[in-house]
Design goal:
single chain; about 575 residues; Rossmann fold; Dehydroquinate synthase-like, alpha domain; 3 domains; 5-stranded parallel β-sheet; 23 helices; binds nicotinamide-adenine-dinucleotide; binds zinc ion
Amino acid sequence: MDDMTPPTRIILTGFSGTGKSAVGPLVAKQLGWAFVDTDDIVEKHVGKRILQIFADDGEQAFRDFESDALREACSRETTVISTGGGAVLRADNRRLLAESGFIVCLEAWPETIYQRLTDRADTQPLDRPLLAGDDPLGRIRELEYSRAHLYALCDWSVHTDGLSIDQVVDEVVRAYHEHGEQSLAAPGRVDAIATTQATVPAGTLHIVPEEGACIVRTSSREYPVFTGWGTLGELGKRLREANLTRFAYVISDETVWHHLGDEVEKSLRSAEIDFDVFTVPPGEASKSLEHASDIYDWLIEHRAERGHAVVAVGGGVVTDLGGYVAATFARGLPLVHVPTSMLGMVDAAIGGKVAVNHPNAKNMIGMFHQPRFVLEDVATLRTLPVREIKSGLAEAIKHGLIEDASYLDFLEQNADAILKLDRNATVEAVRRSVAIKAAVVGEDEFETTGRRSTLNYGHTLAHAIESTTGYARFRHGEADGIGMMAAASMAVRMGLLSPEVMERQRRILDRYGLPTHADGLDRDRLLVAVALDKKVQGKKMRWVLLEDIGRTVIRDDVPPEIVDAALDDVLH
Ligand SMILES: NC(=O)c1ccc[n+]([C@@H]2O[C@H](COP(=O)([O-])OP(=O)(O)OC[C@H]3O[C@@H](n4cnc5c(N)ncnc54)[C@H](O)[C@@H]3O)[C@@H](O)[C@H]2O)c1
Ligand SMILES: [Zn+2]
């Protein structure tokens, strides 16, 4: 399409119940254009109702048919095209739509959508599953929310709440005349719309450049992670967007609250969200059933109920404790993570594992409970002690080693900037790390296929090091550094990994001030602790090993003499 010629197609998108199919033909009539609905094309081509296609062939097959139908529709001129609400999920579709015409999103509040879908006599087949569960409104909210970042990319939005169909039609026609030509001429528009990652296979995540949100897609929930600089003040607004406005139970630790409490309170107040705050002492000891129990007492006093949210503001201790309470109280309260430590941002707040410690077994009492969203303000790290920053970065380095060579390059090249918390470099480091963890977790939410276990690279020995030293001598990431070096040494000795890659790993750990060996550790106690670790299946020790940067393998056949030799390599 040439610059500055009026578009010859109007594409209507938006959630079910926003009125696309009713509005489309009327817009076409006003303009004297044709109208086509891509769902109709699909049904005609396949010869089945859409719900039947979903049932017989699955959503992916439907999406393939839909992509074909979009191509066909976009080959027609002077046409209003109404698309299914999920058409924007695929990047290829978005590119095609962006190249073909003026994209208008019809929006509506979840309540409006719910009302319209339930009022409608001829509920569309596809909407029935949406309405079928025990909390249809909640489901609509969630789905709409998970797609909001995509709908936001459209050229124009019409908020349909409270408008009649004719008023919506007028709005669309007006927007087309006043903005159509200009919108399409905006430089970089097609790429901006298309390259926001949103291809759908489970486990991928979507980065929205403007907001730095990545969407974590798991089988139980989809949610955004907003990573930015100076964004803590958006907490109230984000809660509103997520419809978590009734009451916020903020859980934090005393140190974090001392630094950030005022800002959090201010944000909640300005969004007119009622809240109360519960703080625990800083440190691992707070991740206990006793503290959880104190929080339950507090929630009962406040008559907390299911629509109320738990907001965990703090490091990994607080996200795990707050998450555990949210998962268990009243069979589950909505949870929001606001991680404030490096480890919390790149690791603990992503993936839905929540837990408290048993006196004899760390993280043993826990479950999976995914948050509604995660808000990461990287600027909050400015008050975090540098040792904690380095420790958290061990997980980021691990993410590069196991998944993404280009991320490892980035961490190598920007080490100085990141350690100084340079704004751009650090935000990018955190975002990319979040993206990697989110992708892995999305593919194996409940750690059943082995995929998620690769995140345990270096951790088998690290946990043993931490427990045999009473969690006092090393920060978690420091123990990881030693554990990753032992794993690398095993892999080299087994002929899986080149010594050069092991040296590269050592150099980057060094560069970030993380230990690669340690003296004074008791080898026999370490081996007993490794054998007790939950990553041991049967009698065999299982190790996550590296074959190259970005390539892991899980092995339970590492010969004892190689384990011994690898321990020799790091225990000095
Ligand atoms: N659920 C998971 O998937 C997962 C993953 C990794 C780690 N974890 C858990 O995370 C915990 C460790 O997390 P952590 O290292 O963040 O520990 P932490 O929560 O104890 O935080 C470390 C210290 O930093 C302080 N702090 C946090 N944010 C601060 C800020 N912005 N300014 C100043 N001080 C700040 C805390 O008060 C604390 O003293 C462990 O319990 C571990 O089991 C969980
Ligand atoms: Zn870890």
